[in-house]
Specification:
With 135 residues, the chain is of the alpha/beta class. The chain is built from three helices and seven strands.
Length: 135
C-alpha cells in the first residue's frame, strides 16, 4: 500500500517506511553517507528533514524560497570567514543522482553555490535496504 504524505514538499520523492529504522540508519545509510563525505573531507554534514526532501523535477514547482528556508538558512559569518554547512538528503530515485563518486562508487548529485557544493542528493538502492532487512 502507498500512503500519502501531504506535508511533504515534493510531489516526486518516494518515502520508505519501516517499523524500526534505527538499525537501517545506523548500520547501512549513515555509514555510506559518512564514507562519502569523509573522502571529500566534509565534517558534520546535516541531513535535512524528510518532509523537506525534493527531487530535480520539483524545481519547476517548488518556490525559490525553498533554497533559503532549507539549504541556505544557516550560512553565517564567524571571525571574518563565511561558514556554509553542507546538507544532504537520501533519495531512492536514481534519476536524482547523475554523478558517481570515484572513491566510494556512490551515486550522487549536488547543488552548488558559486562552484561550492552546499547540498547533496545521495542515492541508496532500495534493494540494499531489503537485503539488509532480510539477509
Amino acid at each position: 500500500m502507498i500512503s500519502e504524505k501531504k506535508e511533504a514538499r515534493s510531489e516526486f520523492v518516494t518515502y520508505l517506511s519501516v517499523k524500526n529504522n534505527t538499525q537501517i540508519n545506523n548500520e547501512l545509510i549513515f555509514p555510506k553517507a559518512r564514507k562519502f563525505f569523509d573522502v571529500r573531507n566534509i565534517k558534520n554534514p546535516q541531513s535535512i528533514a524528510e518532509n523537506d526532501a525534493i527531487a530535480s523535477y520539483d524545481f519547476k514547482t517548488v518556490k525559490f524560497s525553498y533554497l533559503y528556508d532549507v539549504i541556505f538558512n544557516d550560512i553565517s559569518k564567524k571571525e571574518g570567514k563565511i561558514e556554509i554547512p553542507i546538507k544532504y538528503c537520501i533519495t531512492l530515485d536514481k534519476r536524482n543522482c547523475e554523478k558517481t563518486c570515484e572513491k566510494t562508487g556512490m551515486l550522487y548529485d549536488e547543488i552548488l553555490l558559486y562552484k561550492q557544493p552546499v547540498f547533496y542528493f545521495l542515492y541508496i538502492n532500495i534493494e540494499e535496504i531489503f537485503e539488509f532487512l532480510h539477509p
